[in-house]
Design a protein that fits this description.
Number of helices: 10
Strand content: 5-15%
Structural class: mainly alpha
């Protein structure tokens, strides 16, 4: 797709008339919608984990729930295969990369961005960015949060596969003491807060930039643009009344004959054709 031309390397991007720099509100809206859509990819990874045997229900727990529905089972609720479970988490990250980086490369926009008439392009030329730059943009924008989410999927599944339901509901249950995974829990909490803070930093970097390029855009050399409003031809708006202009013939003046109208016919003498000829005596 043809792009635009930047006159100088350090100059602000000069966009075509039909494009404008996307505002923060539109970008935030697209980010929220895409977050919901890409979050659904976790369901795909979950289905793959179940279908491959990486995650399943513990039959002993199901039997206890069926025989003693009011008693919490003393066995874990799930069974997991660590290798297949981790592979499913990696699949979630790969699908997330394909959703964002693939859409930026193939369609210049994610589904939410297309819905809001936004597109991601090279900041200097306006052309579609290559896949490796799209991956760089994804890493800066969603890499940390996607990794944290994939890690939580693994930790939660492994916890439900090693701790019985009765132990988890006990007031004396301690996750860190009984499982020796306090370090993992602390690391997960730390990464979660780092991910939230990083998202705020990116949001602020977009808000304070005159060209609305956040840190992720600067790392990837991209810019987000949208459709510019249609500018009508010079003149009064269409909603103005028709009588605001000056009358063509002036105010209250008699109309003038057209300039190209023929002059009235006359005789050889003075006077008009309708004047009777003088009678000589």
């Amino acid at each position: 797709m043809a792009g635009w031309v930047v006159e100088q390397r350090e100059a602000t991007v000069v966009l075509p008339p039909h494009l404008k720099i996307a505002g923060l509100g539109y970008r935030l809206g697209a980010w929220l919608i895409d977050g919901i859509l890409s979050g659904l990819l976790a369901l795909v990874a979950l289905v793959v984990a179940i279908a491959s045997g990486g995650l399943g229900l513990n039959q002993d727990a199901m039997n206890q729930l069926r025989l003693y529905p009011q008693v919490r089972p003393d066995v874990p609720l799930l069974t997991v295969h660590d290798g297949l479970l981790i592979a499913s988490a990696v699949l979630f990250v790969v699908l997330n990369v394909a959703y964002y980086a693939g859409c930026w490369t193939m369609f210049r926009a994610t589904p939410a961005q297309r819905l809001l008439s936004l597109q991601v392009a090279d900041a200097r030329t306006g052309r579609t960015i290559p896949f490796w730059r799209a991956v760089v943009r994804w890493l800066a924008l969603f890499g940390l949060s996607s990794g944290v989410m994939a890690g939580f999927m693994v930790v939660i599944a492994q916890t439900l596969a090693t701790v019985s339901i009765s132990d988890m509901s006990s007031p004396y249950y301690s996750y860190s003491v009984s499982n020796g995974r306090g370090d993992w829990e602390g690391m997960a909490n730390l990464l979660t807060w780092v991910s939230i803070i990083w998202s705020v930093v990116l949001l602020v970097s977009v808000a304070v930039s005159s060209s609305k390029t956040g840190l992720h855009d600067r790392l990837a050399g991209t810019i987000v643009v949208g459709k510019a409003p249609v500018v009508r031809a010079w003149g009064p708006p269409q909603s103005w009344a028709q009588g605001y202009g000056q009358p063509p013939q002036g105010y209250g003046q008699p109309p003038h004959p057209p300039a190209d109208s023929p002059a009235p016919p006359t005789t050889e003498g003075s006077g008009s054709q309708n004047t009777p000829p003088a009678v000589s005596e």
